Amino acid sequence: MAKSDTRIQKKNQAAILGAGLEVFSQFGFRGSTLDQVAEAAGMSKPNLLYYFKSKEGIYTALLSQLLNDWLEPLQALDAEGDPIEQIIAYARRKLAMSQHYPRESRLFANEIIQGAPRIGDVLRGELKDLVDEKVAVIRRWQAAGRIADVSPYHLIFTIWSLTQHYADFDVQVRAILPDEDPFEGAALHLDRTLQAILTP
Amino acid sequence: MAKSDTRIQKKNQAAILGAGLEVFSQFGFRGSTLDQVAEAAGMSKPNLLYYFKSKEGIYTALLSQLLNDWLEPLQALDAEGDPIEQIIAYARRKLAMSQHYPRESRLFANEIIQGAPRIGDVLRGELKDLVDEKVAVIRRWQAAGRIADVSPYHLIFTIWSLTQHYADFDVQVRAILPDEDPFEGAALHLDRTLQAILTP
DNA sequence: CGTGTGTTTGACCAGATGGTCAAATATGAG
DNA sequence: CTCATATTTGACCATCTGGTCAAACACACG
């Protein structure tokens, strides 16, 4: 019985999710108010709640909408490709996401630092399964002697932490490097680091 | 004219700061309430405010009290020591802090992700100066050919991100590695990674 | 143009939250 | 023990916040 969304509904839902991303990524869930989101979306608070049941509804809609985009780069890691090339390509995709979608990165960071109360199940389910699968791929590469024998789990943590650092701690990075674009140096450094770790 | 604190004052101030650390590190500043802090400190809300002027007062007292501990490991980096040894020792100290003081790490992470509204000046001042000083040390080591020629700034970011990741994203790390202590593998991985990057 | 449906909002409410205050209670120096 | 001072708290207040509701408005379709 679900009617397909009208033009206006699509436009407003998109505006609300955009505003929610802006606000929630900066202040976290509890630190944000509906008035802030409404203001950022350019509409009244009751109108927000005409499109989404509650504050929580906006937030969880955002989280689940973004989760797929967030996992996609790792899914693209190809067991048939060249090992070092594949891993570096993955790291570059992740870094590019930090550069172009820092708000999404900070949204997840806020959520996870505060104990992941709303996506803990996804972390322990979908995410863990995906990581386990790719860890198996890396282990096969290692067994064949094609890359060095580092812990695949910690290798993945290395890529996550290094790339997300530039988005999540952007203020700190720019406090240290006020006169340059951190992402240029980061890309080069990331390449060299992974080369150094992975070369057998 | 400042009277030295009595026994009771010392005890209660410590209790409040401990409670504040517990609560603020989990929910961030805006996400925490004075009632939560009072409850965790085992006293009434008005009594909290007898010792600290405001919620903000507790928070900023915490931040500035912890900042020194946070910068100390980097200060201890010794220009006269063996380069690779010194850098790895720094990374290990940082990792140990993430392991033993994860709440402090998350407190800073929350603050910085949300734009560091209260410690931006410290980042651009004290922290930047300290980092610049140590970067100069690393550059001298590199000029002497004693370590590889990586960007010193990004090397430091690497150490920060890798070590703090295990504290700040603890929930995610443990979701992926439910059956082991992540810090054991992390220490080994960190050593190997830095060896690989730094060996000329 | 008129009518039914979808959209928007001003006014409002209940509960939470940061902070105040006067009164009660504990403490310790003489 | 006594009293001045330090400590503690119940009751309270103003503001903020998530959410509701009825009324107003816009719009498409006959």
From TrEMBL, chains A, B:
<dbReference type="GO" id="GO:0003700">
    <property type="term" value="F:DNA-binding transcription factor activity"/>
</dbReference>
<dbReference type="Pfam" id="PF08362">
    <property type="entry name" value="TetR_C_3"/>
</dbReference>
<protein>
    <submittedName>
        <fullName>HTH-type transcriptional regulator RutR</fullName>
    </submittedName>
</protein>
<dbReference type="InterPro" id="IPR050109">
    <property type="entry name" value="HTH-type_TetR-like_transc_reg"/>
</dbReference>
<dbReference type="Pfam" id="PF00440">
    <property type="entry name" value="TetR_N"/>
</dbReference>
<dbReference type="InterPro" id="IPR001647">
    <property type="entry name" value="HTH_TetR"/>
</dbReference>
<dbReference type="InterPro" id="IPR036271">
    <property type="entry name" value="Tet_transcr_reg_TetR-rel_C_sf"/>
</dbReference>
<feature type="DNA-binding region" description="H-T-H motif">
    <location>
        <begin position="33"/>
        <end position="52"/>
    </location>
</feature>
<keyword id="KW-0238">DNA-binding</keyword>
<dbReference type="InterPro" id="IPR009057">
    <property type="entry name" value="Homeodomain-like_sf"/>
</dbReference>
<dbReference type="GO" id="GO:0000976">
    <property type="term" value="F:transcription cis-regulatory region binding"/>
</dbReference>
<dbReference type="GO" id="GO:0045892">
    <property type="term" value="P:negative regulation of DNA-templated transcription"/>
</dbReference>
<feature type="domain" description="HTH tetR-type">
    <location>
        <begin position="10"/>
        <end position="70"/>
    </location>
</feature>
<dbReference type="InterPro" id="IPR013573">
    <property type="entry name" value="Tscrpt_reg_YcdC_C"/>
</dbReference>
